[in-house]
Specification:
The complex is a heterodimer of chains A (about 675) and B (about 425). Chain A is built from 29 helices and twelve strands. Chain A is of the alpha+beta class and about 675 residues long. Chain A has a five-stranded mixed sheet. In chain A, a hairpin with a 4-residue loop joins strand 2 and strand 3. In chain A, helix 12 crosses helix 14 and helix 14 crosses helix 23. In chain B, about 40% of the residues lie in helices and about 15% in strands. In chain B, a hairpin with a 3-residue loop joins strand 10 and strand 11. The chains are: A alpha+beta (about 675), B alpha/beta (about 425). At the A-B interface, helix 2, helix 3, helix 5, helix 6 and helix 11 of A face helix 1, helix 3, strand 2 and strand 3 of B. Strand 6 of chain A pairs antiparallel with strand 2 of chain B, so a sheet runs across the interface.
Chain lengths: ~675, ~425
Amino acid sequence: MSFDRYEARRIAAELQGPVDDANELAERLGLEPYPVNYWIVDYDEMNELIAYDGFQRRYPHWRWGMKYDKQQKQGRYGGGKAFEIVNNDNPSHAFLQESNDLADQKAVITHVEAHADFFANNEWFGMFADDLDAAAMLERHARNISEYMQDPDIDRAEVERWIDNLLSLEDNIDQHQVFDPRGTLGDDIEGDTDDKLSEQLDELDVSDEVREEVFSDEWLERQNEDEDGVSFPDVPEKDVLAFLRKHGKQYDGEAEKAAEMEPWQRDVLDMLRAEAYYFAAQKMTKVMNEGWAAYWESMMMGEEAFATADEFISYADHQARVLGSPGLNPYKLGKELWEYIENTTNRREVVEKLLRVDGITWRNFTDTVDFERVLSALEPPEALDRLSSDTLDEVAELPDEFVDREALENARDGEIDVDRYPWKVLTYEGLARRHYSLVKPQYRGFLASVGQSDLERIGRYMFDDAVYDDVEAALDDIDFNRGWDRMREIRESHNDVTFLDEFLTQEFVDENEYFTYEYSQAAGQNRVASTEYEDVKKKLLLQFTNFGKPTIGVYDGNYNNRNELLLGHHYNGVMLDIQQAKRTLERVFELWGRPVNLMTIVKEVDEHDIEVAKRRDKEPDPEERGKLIRYDGEEHTIEDLSWEEVEDIAASDVDYDTKPDEWLA
Amino acid sequence: MGLKDDLERFYEVGEQRREDLSDFIQYGDLGQSLPNEVRVPIKIVDLPEFQYDQRDQGGVGQGDADVGDPVGEPQPQPGDGDEEGDPGDESGEHEYYEMDPEKFAEELDEELGLELDPKGKSVIEEKEGPFKDLTKSGPDSTLDFERMFKKGLKRKLAMDFDEEFLTEVLKADGVSPDRAFEWARGESIPVSKAWLTETYSDIPENERGEWESIEQVEENVERETVQQQIRREGIGHVPFRREDERYRHPEIIEEKEKNVVVVNIRDVSGSMREKKRELVERTFTPLDWYLQGKYDNAEFVYIAHDAEAWEVERDEFFGIRSGGGTKISSAYELADELLQEFPWSDWNRYVFAAGDSENSSNDTEEGVIPLMEQIPANLHAYVETQPSGNAINATHAEEVERHFGEDSDDVAVTYVTGPEDVTDAIYDILSTEDES
């Protein structure tokens, strides 16, 4: 652990209280965060940490310098205030900037607690390693790569170039698989590298289950087949870095031919690939994770008044700045979706209970139920809502499940300041009741707006539909925890893709005014294309699936029987940026050592069609064509492929196009 | 190793990969620069990766919108930018290599082979130079003792004489102090009559007339020069005199500041359409940066004109469009007036005008040219921006050129028909002056 640099300033005394309180509050709200170590850093140190993705040491590379430079300038010109850095580690480490005022610090702390809960409980974060020590891993990489750079036998610029090459492919991994640092075993490199590898593995502490999984006999066999086969791999390999690790060579410019990678080159490749897997989890859960943190921050800061009244204005300002950023903001989308999930879950609970009232069916639901009456019955008890030091007697009469009796005694003895911290005398159930979403002013219409199809779906297969004699009896049975319980379940198992896929509905899209846009060839600009939730979902999924990048796989490591590499772009209807693809191929060439090829499908529209389309206020129909882009170390060539040759890479069942038929008319 | 190192590497990498200056001037995005910071986009600092074609990808936005509504700039999408996802971070599109105008001017000199040497004009301060000047009075600590000693020494050298020899001369037969003094005068020996009289009276009676004549003394007594005497006896007493005292005192140096005022004149009349307008911006902006970088103090005046002229702020200058005709002399009249604030004795002046060469009849001949001659400036330039070649009645540039001649050293006329001409135009303009 290399945090000693900050030892002297580890958490200022005035923040110890808020930190302990925030953690206690988070736990009362049902969260289970990793322990968090907070560190106070100054402005420069904060910028450094941001440049290094939240860590203190990274391997030497110019792009950290670039980020640092940018960060400093943002601070200088735009007042880009760094609010929060927390890294995914157990314990988590969070950094507070010393110049922030207390309200901001509190906001950061509550936000961080929620992130730490997400890190600890989301299973995508568990995929990297069972026992995480990310800071140590990154530090080790920093040390090793620095050593290579200082090694007199190795040209420093050479190492830098190698890193650049690898970074171009950092998203070309198989992030849905458990990280397998030994995706490389069975090849023919020297023993000492193997030893070094297994040393690294031990340090990473991968579980035995994973080892079993990785070294299954089938897997080993498949590796052998690969060696003998004329064409390999059998199925396209999505982990391009692993494939290059195993079969790639470096290009020796002087000899003008491929040469085996140097041990340091393989080692650097392994390290960068490991880092790519480590950071993948964060990239895959950005909407959820940021939304989760924003939701709980707002719950703690706003609704539980974690900030005092005079701090609150400053907090509200901070919140507005974070959520009010222009464009599609993952914080905002995520927070809105979590709130929507909370509301729909609570609504479903109420609807299910009401549908079990004798005489209420999904057909007559909206006409029969008096929503105002229901809502007032759902209001939290007065004693819960207006808890203060003057109402402790009323609190004492609340049901046991809501009240922490021991804490209440302490409050009566004056040990707990109930006016400041009303939540300290409440249990999880008590807090859930106190913050029940459906009766909040902004959501009071939510229950009544339940759609007929939702009612039908819930009611149609409900068998014991006359459990309650009247509405009151049904409402007595309501589980007020259900919203929060459900949210925690979802944060365990989902990633952004499944999250958006499952919870985005028309109701949500209408409520929050999302739309898709597409580029109009005829108009020469982007136009709003659709406000249908299916379309919005499609576009969002496109942006979040596979890090928002096209899927590229290795299709053949012995293309045309000439040891050339054939990559394939799994075409989903959206074409590649061809210029970038060409430049990326130049990088791949350096890692393969021999000519590299990429097959893809492009859309072509000819000028004439655009003209015709313009006159008719229509969009031209692009034509899809197969292309093979080849780079041989000196020049690029592009040739046409027949449709039969690219049929395999074209996905027929997906369509990300959201353009309406009658668009510009 | 560490972040400092990374930052340095970034600057190095950025420098290598920044857009070539000529390319930048001709085709780059000039609008990102700040008044004191030229921002040149860096190519390829973002490492290439397999990405979707941005247009084909489309996206999601938020707001009250109807299908078919135009959407402005593509909204920043999640997943763009860095992993930290700091809110409000819209960059990540481009990185810029930043240089100050000095550096820009230096690089442009190198790239275009320019040698503009800015002249210092107004005196901004009188600086104390080294203590070289001398006065006859001053504090003791500044007394130039070395000088006084030398003077004293010189005086000693001038005043001293060979006393022994002169004593012998006085012993010659028939030589009175008067006679000896006469002789010494003839020999340029700096001896006083008083000394001679005194010495003569000291000579005992029996020694008088020891020598037959002065000639005999000269033959028999060895004369010693003052130098020889000093070498033998040491300096002894040096006669200091009050009049030799000099006090050192600092020299006054006039610092001349390199001041420049640049007048940018632009035709904003109806005929100046988008493309012409853009070419003016492409030509003027780097000129401004360049001169700003070359001079200590640069002031800019922006004049827009159609049939009339008015002064505008830089922000508006390139954007303005108006209707109406064109009378270029109106702008020069205003320039003449505004330049009163920047006297020619103190300021270097550049007057740059641009337009499509259209002017009202006879105005060039009768209005503009006399004014150009009347306004003293290092350089007058006219930049014709005519993307489609020449229009028939657009003859302003030609007329100016014909009048002043192509080899004029203070009037430059250039023609820009597209971005590719911009660097040549800039070269033509900036090299006109240094040909002088």
